[in-house]
Write a structure and sequence with these properties.
About 65% of the residues lie in helices and about 5% in strands. The chain is built from eight helices and two strands. The chain has helices spanning about 20-25, 35-55, 55-80, 85-110, 115-140, 150, 165-180, 205-225; strands spanning about 155, 230. The protein has a two-stranded antiparallel sheet. Helix 2 (about 35-55) packs parallel to helix 4, helix 3 packs antiparallel against helix 4 (about 85-110) and helix 5 (about 115-140) runs parallel beside helix 8 (about 205-225). The longest helix is centred in the middle third of the chain and has 29 residues, at about 115-140. The protein is globular. Residues about 1-10 have low confidence and may be disordered.
Length: about 230
């Protein structure tokens, strides 16, 4: 398949975890592409934020985990079927950010915690910044001849996600899954077993260190993406 159709000419390197999805991918319709799955994940952001705002957290959590499963499936499908496209490389992380953004924003509305707010607003801002950087890189790679002026000024060294961004996404999936599937305002009875812990420790309290880690890895991810854009003399 040609570059004009958006599919890379060279075969993708199959990763070890891709074999987990092999049997499922074989039975999926041939006309179902990885970009369809990524686009569907992008749309899932709407019901997720609405469900959280209406306090249907467990239902939202189920949809969120379903989106996480599709995130693993679409990448493996793209590599196994050799359906990696430039647009897909942009849409896949964009869908991740949309789903996480929706969940975080929903909790900003429902959770009354200054600590949570002070951490989540920067995380959301970083996700938005990463989205704009990814869009800029995609535009440069997708339309080189139409944007000759920009190509004289900038060069994209790498267009994919970096390791810091991947770690940040995993941490966000963990913390958001727990906040949706369990009531973040309910105390966890850990004090009876671990005397040194506060008697009213909540799931929200336990999520704060993970949110701090998300913020730190997010900043490193932004730095890595900016370093992947070379400013030409």
């Amino acid at each position: 398949m040609s570059e004009e159709s958006g599919v890379a000419k060279k075969g993708a390197q199959i990763k070890s975890h891709d074999h987990f999805w092999t049997h499922l991918i074989k039975i999926l319709p041939k006309n179902l592409t990885p970009n369809h799955l990524s686009g569907f994940r992008f749309l899932l952001a709407i019901p997720i934020i609405l469900l959280i705002m209406e306090h249907y957290n467990k239902t939202a959590g189920g949809l969120f985990l379903f989106a996480a499963v599709l995130d693993g499936l679409d990448g493996s499908m793209a590599r196994i079927r050799n359906q990696i496209t430039k647009f897909g490389a942009f849409l896949d992380p964009a869908a991740d950010k949309a789903v996480n953004f929706a969940a975080f924003l929903g909790f900003v509305y429902t959770i009354r915690s200054d600590y949570y707010l002070y951490l989540v607003i920067p995380i959301i801002s970083i996700d938005l910044l990463l989205f704009f950087i990814a869009t800029f890189k995609y535009v440069l790679v997708r339309w080189p001849s139409e944007l000759k002026y920009l190509h004289h000024k900038f060069e994209v060294l790498t267009s994919g996600a970096n390791k810091f961004g991947k770690i940040k996404m995993v941490l966000q999936v963990i913390v958001l899954s727990f906040l949706m599937l369990f009531d973040p305002a309910t105390s966890i009875n850990l004090h009876d077993k671990y005397i040194h812990l506060p008697s009213h420790l909540t799931l929200l309290d336990l999520s704060l260190p993970l949110l701090i880690a998300c913020l730190i890895f997010g900043l490193f991810s932004v730095k890595g993406h900016l370093q992947a854009i070379k400013i030409l003399p």
